[in-house]
Amino acid sequence: MNFFRLYVLLFVCIGIFSCSEKNDYKNISNLELKLRMANTEDSNDSLKIKANASELMTAYQQYVIQNPDSIMSSEFLCRAGGIAEGYLKNQKEALQIYESVIEKYPESQAEMLALNRLGYIHRYHLQEPEKASKYYQTFIQKYPFTAQSMQVRLILDSIQKETSNK
Q: Is the CATH number 1.25.40.10 carried by domain 24-164?
């Protein structure tokens, strides 16, 4: 009898944990929809939009914590950085999130985006062209033959011209 109970308990636990990632996707999809709806229907209600954005950012981060090896984790972490940067105007948090992408998901599409966003934030939001240059140079060193590398080279040239004129 005890063996049977243990077996049933094990079966239930496996069922719960195997469905959790699927449930997380559904929750994230619902939160993304909720944010899109708030953007269209409540475009003047910035508090509601920020609350929805914050909730979605937290869901992305929780997903990554619970599923660090999932194919979607690096993507969701970048999306969380985009929310911090765009909706919440929290550049410090965005920097931390993008740095964690580089640390946790090197050699990935997400790392390419994170390096680019880190350069952008340092250049345009924080007025730190030297730090921006470091991220852009890292991008070019790691991904020299990508479609984005030419654009990053142009940005680096522009930064060098700006800093040499000062």
A: yes
CA-to-CA distance for 19 and 66, rounded, in angstroms?
A: 13
If DSSP codes are grouped into helix, strand and coil, which group holds residue 44? Answer: coil
Nearest to 95 by CA among 61, 122, 68: 122
Per-residue tokens: 112: 């390419």
pLDDT given at position 163: 86
User: What distance in Å separates the CA atoms of residue 143 and residue 152, rounded to the nearest whole number?
Assistant: 10
95 CB-near residues (< 8 Å, 6+ apart): 118, 121
Q: Has residue 94 got a pLDDT over 80?
A: yes
**Taking a C-beta distance cutoff of 8 angstroms, is the pair 37, 55 a contact?**
no
In the predicted model, what is the mean pLDDT of residues 78-92? Answer: 97
For the chain, the structural domain boundaries read 24-164
